[in-house]
Task: inverse folding
């Protein structure tokens, strides 16, 4: 768990070149080119079906790409959406954090005392030490997201992929999660966050805008122009506050957009 802190290199945690992928037919993503160094938060923006989850599946090795190159020199962990239907399993928060050892321990070894201690430390780092023995399914949406972050810490993931982690969270829970993501970045991990929230993404370091192909990648202040927002969300979006960056009419936080309703699952 200490590896990221001790990192002295600025080498990218992920580099993607000419990447395309899909599910056997037409590609769902084409021609993605980006790289993410250590210690950054990247908002992955796009409309429903824009390819955000597909990109994450490819980075996690769950989906083979059609073409292109991916370099992932370090471990990559995921914080998936937790669906209500899967919450009946009788596992505790500690059990879930311990799952981070799957694939890290040799096949004959079960997690022992040391692994339990590390998993408890990971739960403490996400502010959930006292919930270690609580059933995962009884936790709030925000607490479940943080347990899954603890699991990624146990995996020693340097790059964390969070799929719409804020959906369904009330604002105190969202704030806790946002601060946790900030701390992860401060210790040299990078976090890619699929989101529909343009304003929130504006507070992160980079944005990757997808609409099957890569529309833009860069600092939000540089790339989130009206054209990019419209190309990312298609014709269904209403851009408000007028003007480009620096033009009259632009507010301090830049352009905003009214996004179409989307299918956020209620995570609470
Ligand atoms: N298992 C699958 N089999 C076939 N096609 C799929 C599968 N999963 C996704 N797709 C298709 O791939 C495209 C990209 O979907 P993806 O789930 O990556 O988008 P997304 O940006 O994550 O969307 P959302 O915001 O709705 O989660 C869509 O056209 C979708 O229908």
Result:
């Amino acid at each position: 768990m200490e590896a990221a802190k001790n990192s002295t290199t600025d080498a990218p945690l992920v580099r993607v070149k000419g990447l395309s992928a899909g599910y056997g037919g037409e590609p769902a993503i084409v021609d993605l080119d980006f790289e993410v160094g250590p210690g950054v938060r990247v908002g992955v923006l796009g409309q429903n079906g824009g390819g955000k989850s597909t990109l994450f599946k490819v980075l996690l090795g769950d989906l083979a790409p059609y073409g292109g190159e991916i370099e992932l020199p370090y471990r990559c962990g995921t914080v998936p959406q937790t669906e209500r239907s899967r919450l009946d399993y009788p596992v505790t928060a500690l059990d879930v954090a311990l799952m981070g050892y799957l694939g890290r321990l040799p096949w004959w070894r079960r997690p022992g005392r040391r692994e339990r201690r590390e998993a408890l430390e990971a739960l403490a780092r996400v502010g959930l030490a006292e919930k270690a023995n609580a059933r995962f399914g009884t936790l709030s949406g925000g607490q479940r997201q943080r347990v899954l972050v603890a699991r990624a810490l146990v995996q020693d993931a340097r790059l964390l992929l969070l799929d719409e982690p804020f959906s369904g969270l009330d604002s105190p829970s969202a704030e806790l999660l946002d601060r946790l993501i900030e701390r992860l970045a401060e210790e040299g991990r990078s976090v890619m966050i699929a989101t529909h929230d343009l304003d929130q993404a504006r507070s992160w370091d980079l944005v990757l805008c997808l609409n099957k192909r890569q529309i833009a990648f860069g600092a939000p202040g540089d790339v989130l122009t009206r054209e990019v927002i419209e190309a990312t969300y298609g014709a269904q979006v209403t851009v408000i506050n007028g003007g480009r960056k620096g033009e009259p009419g632009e507010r301090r936080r830049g352009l905003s957009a009214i996004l179409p309703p989307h299918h956020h699952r209620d995570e609470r």
